[in-house]
Amino acid sequence: MKNENLQTWALVSEVIGGIAVVLSLIFVGFQIQQSSEETAMNTRALEATAYQNLIAQIESMNTLIIQDPEFADLYNRMLNRESPTNSVERQRIVTFIT
Q1: Residue 90 confidence (pLDDT) above 90
Q2: What's the pLDDT at 17?
């Protein structure tokens, strides 16, 4: 009788252990899904920030061209593949591009 009782408890323990493993795997699955969703949201936020930074840089460049006629002329010459006439112009273009 003791042997049967031990076998019964061993079987119950195995079933409980199996259920615990299944529940743990389900929990891990939910954690992985949540982590994936957070990663996707972070990626979208980084993309939006990069886009906003790009737009801000373009606006800054356009403002410089609009407000400084001398630089606008230099910029147009650069677009037409004309070389800067002196080191100051060359430095302005290099600084503008980088």
Answers
A1: no
A2: 94
Residue type, 72: A
Of the candidates 52, 84, 55, the residue with the CA atom closest to the CA atom of residue 71: 84
Per-state percent for the chain, helix, strand, coil, to nearest 5: 90, 0, 10
pTM of the model: 0.58
Mean pLDDT within 41-64? 94
| Residue bearing tokens 């920030």 | 49
**Residue the block writes with tokens 């906003």:** 52
Instruction: Extract long-range pairs of 62-71: CB within 8 Å, 24+ residues apart.
Output: 64/96, 71/96
Tell me how far apart the terminal alpha carbons of the chain are, to the nearest angstrom: 86
* Cβ 66 vs Cβ 72: under 8 Å: yes
- Which of these, 52, 64, 73, lies nearest to 97 by C-alpha position? 64
Nearest to 91 by CA among 68, 74, 79, 66: 74
